[in-house]
Every structure is written in C-alpha cells, then in structure tokens.
Amino acid sequence: MAVLLLGPRSDPQLEAVEHELETRGVETVVWNADNWPGDGKLSFHQTNEDVRVAASDTVVDGSSVHTAYLRNFALNPRLSEYESQLENRPFSLLNQLREYQAVLESMLYDLQRRGVRMINPLESQDVHKRKPWQLSRLADAGVPVPETLTTTDPDAARAFVDRLEDVVYKPVSGGGHAAPVTAADLTADRLSLLTNAPVQFQERIDGDDLRIFVVNGEIVAAARIVADELDYRTTDHDVERIDHSTLDSDIADAAVQATDCLGLAFSGVDVVDGGDRFRVLEANPSPMFATFDEQAGTDVAGALADLLADRDVTPN
Ligand SMILES: Nc1ncnc2c1ncn2[C@@H]1O[C@H](COP(=O)(O)OP(=O)(O)O)[C@@H](O)[C@H]1O
Ligand SMILES: [Mg+2]
C-alpha cells in the first residue's frame, strides 16, 4: 500500500518526504497541486453501490493508500501566481478555486471515512487560520499563551496597549507578519482602521524564538531562531540547532501538549522563551521543515516519513 502526498510538486517539504519514503521502500502517490486548476484530472463518482475517487486517472481508495500527507492544497487566491487573474476576473477565480477546494476536501473526507489516516486530520488543518480559536484551545489545555486581544474596537485596543505596554499586532488568520505596536499605531485615525478588519493584539514576550517539531507525541527537532527583527521572516536569520533532550522540560511538555490538544500528529510549534517565563505562540498543522533541516542539520523529514510509513500508528 502507498502513501498519498498532497501538495505542489515544487514544494520542498513534499520533495523531502517523497525522497525519505522512497529510501524506506515505501510507494508514494503524488496529487500534484501545481496542476490544479489545470491539467491534473480529478473525478469523484458516487453510485448507490460504490464511491470512486480518482486523480490523474488513478483511483485511490482505502485498499491502495493507508496514509495521506496533507501538505498544501495551494488553492489560495492570494498566491502571487494568481495576482493578475485576481485583478482581471476576481469572481470567477474565487469561484473556480472554491470548486476545486470543495472537490478535494470531499475526496479527502471520503478517504478519511474509509480508513485512510490523514497527517494531519482534515478537521485540524484550519487551526492556523483561526488564531483566536487556537489560542483558546491551547489555554484550555494548560499551555501558556501570551495575553491576546482580537478586536475591531479602537478603545479596547488602546486600553489593552496602555495596560500591557509592550504589544505586537498580527493578522487574525495568519499569512502576514507580526510587528510591534508603536505610538504611530495609536493615533485615532490609525485605530479607526480596525473597523475595516479585526486585528490581533498580543503581549510581547521578550526572549528567544524557538521552533520545536513534534511527531507522534515526541519532539524530533528544535532550534533557536536568531534575527534582528521581531518577526524573523522579515529579515535574514540564523537557525541554531538545540539538542532537544536538553530543552527545558516545561517547554518540551508544552510543545507536545499544544500539538496533542489540537489533534495534530505532526506540528512545528513556535515558542518564545524569556528565561523566567515562556509562551507558546502556535502549533502549525503543516509546517515547513525542508530549509530548517538544511540549516539546522536536523531530520524532520525522516521522522515524518517514519510516521507516514508506519500505518499502524494511530494519530491522536
Ligand atoms: N507575542 C509575541 N512576542 C514576541 N514575538 C512574537 C509574538 N508574536 C509573534 N512574534 C514573532 O513573530 C513570529 C510570527 O508570529 P506567529 O504568531 O508565529 O504567527 P505566524 O502565523 O505568522 O507564524 C513569531 O515566530 C515570533 O518571532
Ligand atoms: Mg508562526
């Protein structure tokens, strides 16, 4: 039986896992999201006796595939490749991508129902787009999170910043960058923009940025990310590997707990470690790890491949 890999063929994570599975002698079936919308054929056929899922003319079911790695659907109109289409034919583009998403999600839910293990389960894929919901669940599970206010209310935002002083803000559904709140952000004009869209305000934690990878309840890699900017992705940054057996045990437990309470079998957890206190920012359901492995000399791809290959491991 094979492992299904869903994502753009050009995605380094997909390539790394495919390679690791091959070296383990595990057969793979790739649903190449680079081909959608486009030449990649998809068919989903129901009769009263039977249900058939096929991609690129290959039928996939619970007897040919035991596990699927859901890297990325890539059906996001905000991707740069859609820029001109978004300008020229926004409604039809949005509808087109929605239709593809509906077919793929239906197929995957069907496969999941027929016993195909999803890494990660479909229900848990959206937690990174619902940051406040994720924070509630982490806090409920006893995972320390930064105090956070998501609001459209200028007065509430100002009161939050006045009280906590050192505050960052970021998009509620991810996909942007975090930045420190400055005096210029607190003018009435600027704050009135909150009525356009809610923003997440969060207590700023001063400390080291840690990225911890958890696979099947175990930490498999960790690193400190060193950068001059608040959000390391806006600038050059170094990735310094940490021997994960030396991680503070409270931090290690919180990373595993965060992954577990969100129903994830694989995640990359963002932690800020201030020395005397730490906070978990998020657990990502489909983290990038290829560059991380390269820079830190870790083997997240191998650990993930081991999980994908072992059909007897039940995800949380
Ligand atoms: N409350 C915070 N305190 C300190 N640094 C933060 C805070 N929130 C975000 N950051 C920095 O910005 C990065 C991105 O924020 P994160 O919450 O992980 O959102 P994203 O979904 O964009 O990855 C973090 O990895 C961290 O470096
Ligand atoms: Mg993050």
What is the highest CATH level, the class of the largest domain?
Alpha Beta
Global mean pLDDT: 94
- Number of separate helices: 9
CATH topology value of the largest domain = D-amino Acid Aminotransferase, Chain A, domain 1
The biggest beta sheet is recorded as: 5 strands, antiparallel
Number of domains: 3
Bound molecules: adenosine-5'-diphosphate, magnesium ion
Q: How do the strands line up in the largest sheet?
A: 14-13-12-15-16
Large-scale geometry: globular
Name the helix and strand elements from N-terminus to C-terminus, one letter apiece.
EHEEEEEHHEHEHEEHEEEEHEEHH
Low-confidence stretches: none
- Please, what is the CATH homologous superfamily of the largest domain? ATP-grasp fold, B domain
Given the helix and strand composition, which structural class is it?
alpha+beta
Amino-to-carboxy terminus distance: 22 Å
CATH architecture of the largest domain: 2-Layer Sandwich
Approximately how much beta-strand content do the residues carry?
Answer: 25-35%
Helical content, roughly?
A: 25-40%
Q: How many strands? A: 16
What's the Cα radius of gyration?
21 Å
